[in-house]
Design a protein that fits this description.
Elements: H1 3-25, E1 31-35, H2 39-47, E2 52-60, E3 72-77, E4 86-90, H3 118-128, E5 139-146
Antiparallel strand pairs: 1-3, 2-5, 3-4
Length: 163
């Protein structure tokens, strides 16, 4: 075998190694959100392994009609940020906009333009301290029993309006 026959193989190996190095240097998205409006998937992600038996679940969510821009979804959190490894996302905007890292934009959101129902207004007014109109409400109602005697839900609040 002559030395010229080895050159193309060396170039190929070097190219593959360079490609692998570039992949390793790319920032890894530790929080990965998957838009999902299937109530069974959301309930499963929320109560899986928690000793909770769900009797009923209803979901009120927003979408743009394409099936990809949704106000609900599931997430996995490989970084361990906030101590929550996985769960669900409920939003007034597009859940695909959520990820790791600081929020540096003050107005990156999706407005679906859907007013809250009177029942939702009645629930939200005492929480928000006003009688103003609420928009693009996402609501998950659960009826469940538990075998553990105690139920805890970890929640994290995020806002595009307040970077």
């Amino acid at each position: 075998m002559n030395a010229f026959a080895l050159v193309p193989r060396c170039v190929k190996v070097a190219s593959v190694l360079a490609g692998v190095m570039l992949l390793l240097l790319q920032p890894v998205q530790a929080i990965v959100v998957t838009p999902d409006a299937n109530v069974s998937n959301l309930v499963s992600a929320l109560v899986s392994g928690a000793g909770i038996s769900v009797i009923s679940a209803t979901l009120w969510y927003q979408d743009d009609g394409t099936g990809t821009v949704l106000s609900t979804g599931t997430f996995t959190n490989l970084s361990g940020t906030y101590g929550i490894p996985a769960g669900i996302v409920l939003s007034t905007g597009n859940v695909a906009h959520y990820s790791d890292g600081p929020n540096t934009l003050g107005n990156n959101g999706t407005a679906y333009g859907v007013p809250a129902t009177p029942a939702q207004e009645a629930l939200l007014d005492p929480i928000t301290g006003g009688t103003f109109d609420h928009w693009d409400v996402t609501q998950l109602d659960l009826t469940f029993t538990t075998s553990t005697g105690s139920v805890y839900f970890w929640a994290v609040f995020g806002s595009e309006e307040h970077p």
